[in-house]
């Protein structure tokens, strides 16, 4: 199934595809071996000290993944938004509300899945009193992939859902479009099946009500398919 993008972002190169060289991380950073975690709570503590990319400097806090520790389905978003950054929890803002409603309608209990983001700190641009979302670049996604890999090891889901291009890059390690994988089953490096779908924030930006509803139904169908695959 092809995914039609709103014209505004349709042709533009997604930042997730752009190679960006980041400066070396700060010297206070722990090595990967030191933070190899034995539990999700230990992982969250280690993530709180992350300096792998500069995003930690401006964010309020890290937003680790949350959910069932043996979830059969793991859903990956882009990065925390303003509300998530303040709450320290993923998908609690407007996109989270849309996501929650879709889960309910699809018959998927949120407490039975694991929800996380490809990038664990909020990237934004200050605009007066507001903080405007900025899409993470390829360097930031690739640096944060280490944490996503840790979550994958600990939860070991039977199926993954990538919501949007940033999540796809985080899981596959290379730029891939949602439309090229939508309706098919991809695989990450260790063989775990992957369902690609749109990001709930993208659904929120569709102005035409009829189109939005059609795309929301397609999003729900993707979630349902993944849930079925998870057994
Ligand atoms: N968008 C995301 O990708 N993740 C969140 O946690 C919230 C909004």
Q: Could you characterize what this model shows?
A:
The protein is of the alpha/beta class and 231 residues long. It has a single domain (54-230), classed as Uracil-DNA Glycosylase, subunit E. The chain has ten helices and eight strands. It has helices at residues 7-10, 32-35, 40-48, 82-87, 94-106, 138-155, 165-172, 178-181, 200-204, 209-230, and strands spanning 66-67, 73-77, 114-117, 124-127, 130-133, 159-163, 186-187, 193-197. A hairpin with a 5-residue loop joins strand 7 (186-187) and strand 8 (193-197). Helix 5 crosses helix 10. It is globular. 39% of the residues are buried. Uracil (URA) is lined by residues 77-81, 84, 90-91, 93, 95-96, 117, 201.
Summary, kept brief:
The protein is an alpha/beta fold.
Essential attributes:
231 residues, alpha/beta, Uracil-DNA Glycosylase, subunit E, 6-stranded mixed β-sheet, disordered N terminus, binds uracil
Explain the layout of strands and helices.
Layout: H1 7-10, H2 32-35, H3 40-48, E1 66-67, E2 73-77, H4 82-87, H5 94-106, E3 114-117, E4 124-127, E5 130-133, H6 138-155, E6 159-163, H7 165-172, H8 178-181, E7 186-187, E8 193-197, H9 200-204, H10 209-230
Parallel strand pairs: 2-3, 2-6, 6-8
Antiparallel strand pairs: 1-3, 4-5, 7-8
Bound molecules: uracil.
Query: What small molecules does this complex bind?
Result: uracil
Head-to-tail CA distance between termini: 23 Å
The largest beta-sheet arranges its strands as: 1-3-2-6-8-7
Query: What class do helices, strands and sheet pairing give?
Result: alpha/beta
- Overall number of strands: 8
Strand content: 5-15%
**Average residue-wise pLDDT:** 91
CATH architecture: 3-Layer(aba) Sandwich
What's the CATH topology name?
A: Uracil-DNA Glycosylase, subunit E
Helical segment tally? 10
* Cα-atom radius of gyration: 17 Å
SSE string, helices as H and strands as E: HHHEEHHEEEHEHHEEHH
Largest sheet: 6 strands, mixed
Q: In percent, how helical is the residue content?
A: 40-55%
- The CATH class, by name, is Alpha Beta
CATH superfamily descriptor: Uracil-DNA glycosylase-like domain
Number of domains: 1
- Pick out the low-confidence regions: 1-10
Q: Can you tell me the overall shape?
A: globular
